[in-house]
Structure to design on (574 residues):
């Protein structure tokens, strides 16, 4: 069996497991950490969540356990982590790598029943993953014994110190055997961490990820935006962002083969034309995919890094990182695929709250800012789509050659207000152009980054082109979470006159945002929006008209209070 993981010294059986999980190649932290750890060295690794650091320490640890062929007994390895969530997550990772091969990993943390944990320890384990406080409790009561320990890992050491675990960690480390191996991982290396490293690590291998800086100006022109979103809502968030961006062709990166398969399937389900590439495809399949890509038949190509490496496509409008890449270098490499030939490219990155540090590492490396934006609301998408329809109509108007259609408009104009005739035609065009737009009302909760820790302004807005056309920003975001009324269905629509227009810099998103924020309405209750030089007209369902008027009066639009009233009743078109 050929595998880059075997090249690092891992056993064929572990490499087989990784292949089964869809891992195609090691991440940088893994390439640098696995060989020294297998050789028995101590290690000091600077790496944040999202770099693949869990596997970097878990795989060597499991390989030792497997080589010893011991039945589960007193733990052979101890991993200390700051939180209960991380204890569970790391234990799950250990289980996914070693479970089928017979290794037993147990998470123990505060808040859960002590007795049950003690029993599980008594039955025997290979690896214990623990929060320091609870580990110390078990140690004191004799339910956790560390005499057989071959390795200790401190994971997210800086977080553990921040949480006040310094003393507990010292006491636990004192109870470990003298010859044990130790690895310390930390996103940052402040002096207190360096002090622990000095005291407890013996001539450690040092592994730092993402230290080099790129030369200014070597990166292509790319608009870079990140969306912070919980894992469970990532696909919905991406669907929404892609609806808004309407990419000509986006390359979407996922981490593993399995994730590529799943993501492609889910995006297909949302109405996109999707193909995928990963190391599991035959040359034939790959050729077929590339043919469709070149023929412009697809919107999205979902791929792993390895599969995308040899990819030669000219017209990528967007690069999407479904996860933050495992190293800043990989980010730079990926986004370098868009924005070629003088055109501005777009790079979109989905970030889970825990991974926010990785963004900063990337910004340090590239010395470029990544905008952090809120996930667009359905209303943003709708405003943007209306905008696209407007754009399409505008080019038709500029082209002229409409004479053959004047017969229809002239006839109708004798009966109806010409503007109403035009509006009806716009509606028809809009419905036709956007016929396959998904009806997406899913609630994507805004992420509340821990106070004081977020490295970006909370209300960041993407600089989506054309500027200002999108994002009612956090206001609309809040409304998206609000309880919605039933969709307007066939309800009558009325128009609201707003006394500010293009000359005041007013955009559709401002109106949608103001109404949505105050009046808590669903996107379907807001109809066409027209922005003229000195005024604007918003169509809303009759039911919410009063609320919408109140909302618009209560907010300032582009910094000013403006006249808002019901527009003259329309002549009926029914
Ligand atoms: P971590 O930084 O340890 O939290 O890992 C982040 C994510 O990357 C986890 O979901 C892992 O399953 C995944 N992962 C770790 N190593 C690899 C790899 N070599 N290839 C693909 N995915 C990986």
């Amino acid at each position: 069996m050929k595998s880059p993981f075997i090249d690092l010294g891992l056993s064929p059986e572990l490499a087989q497991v990784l292949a089964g999980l869809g891992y195609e190649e090691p991440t940088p932290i893994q390439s640098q950490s696995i060989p020294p750890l297998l050789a028995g060295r101590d290690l000091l690794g600077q790496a944040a969540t999202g770099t693949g650091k869990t596997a970097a320490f878990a795989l060597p640890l499991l390989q030792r356990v497997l080589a010893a062929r011991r039945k589960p007994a007193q733990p052979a390895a101890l991993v200390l982590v700051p939180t209960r969530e991380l204890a569970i997550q790391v234990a799950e990772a250990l289980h996914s790598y070693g479970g089928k091969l017979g290794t037993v990993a147990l998470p123990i943390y505060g808040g859960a029943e002590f007795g049950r944990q003690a029993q599980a320890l008594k039955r025997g384990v290979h690896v214990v993953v623990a929060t320091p406080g609870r580990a110390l409790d078990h140690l004191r009561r004799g339910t956790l014994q560390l005499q057989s320990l071959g390795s200790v890992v401190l994971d997210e050491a800086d977080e553990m110190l921040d949480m006040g675990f310094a003393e507990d960690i010292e006491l636990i480390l004192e109870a470990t055997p003298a010859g044990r191996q130790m690895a310390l991982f930390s996103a940052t290396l402040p002096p207190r961490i360096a002090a622990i490293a000095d005291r407890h690590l013996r001539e450690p291998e040092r592994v730092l990820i993402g230290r080099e800086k790129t030369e200014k100006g070597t990166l292509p022109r790319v608009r870079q935006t990140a969306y912070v979103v919980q894992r469970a809502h990532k696909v919905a968030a991406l669907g929404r962002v892609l609806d808004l961006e309407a990419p000509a062709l986006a390359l979407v990166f996922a981490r593993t083969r399995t994730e590529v398969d799943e993501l492609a399937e889910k995006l297909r389900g949302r109405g996109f034309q999707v193909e995928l590439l990963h190391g599991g495809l035959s040359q034939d399949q790959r050729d077929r995919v590339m043919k469709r890509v070149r023929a412009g038949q697809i919107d999205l190509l979902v791929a792993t890094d390895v599969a995308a490496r040899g990819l030669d496509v000219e017209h990528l409008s967007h690069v999407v990182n479904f996860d933050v890449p495992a190293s800043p270098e990989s980010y730079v490499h990926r986004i370098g695929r868009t924005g070629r030939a003088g055109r501005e490219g777009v790079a979109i990155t989905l970030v889970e709250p825990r991974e926010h540090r990785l963004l900063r590492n990337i910004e340090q490396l590239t010395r470029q800012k990544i905008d952090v934006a809120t996930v667009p609301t359905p209303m943003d998408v709708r405003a943007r789509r209306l905008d696209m329809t407007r754009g399409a109509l505008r080019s038709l108007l500029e082209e002229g050659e409409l004479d053959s259609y004047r017969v229809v408009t002239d006839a109708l104009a004798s009966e109806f207000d010409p503007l109403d005739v035009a509006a009806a035609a716009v509606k028809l065009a809009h419905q036709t152009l956007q016929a396959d737009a998904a009806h997406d009302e899913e609630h994507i909760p805004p992420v509340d980054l821990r106070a004081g820790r977020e490295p970006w302004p909370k209300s960041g807005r993407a600089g989506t082109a054309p500027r200002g056309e999108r994002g009612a920003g956090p206001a609309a975001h809040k409304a998206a979470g609000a309880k919605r009324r039933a969709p307007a269905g066939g309800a009558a629509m009325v128009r609201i006159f707003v006394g500010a227009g293009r000359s005041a810099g007013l955009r559709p998103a401002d109106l949608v945002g103001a109404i949505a924020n105050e009046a808590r309405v669903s996107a379907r209750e807001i109809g066409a929006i027209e922005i003229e030089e000195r005024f604007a007209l918003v169509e809303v369902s009759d039911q919410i008209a009063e609320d919408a008027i109140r909302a618009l009066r209560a907010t300032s639009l582009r910094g000013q209070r403006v006249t808002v009233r019901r527009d003259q009743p329309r002549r009926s078109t029914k």
Remarks:
- Residues 23, 26-27, 30, 49-55, 255-256 surround adenosine monophosphate (CB under 6 Å).
- Residues 449-489, 570-574 have pLDDT under 50 and may be disordered.
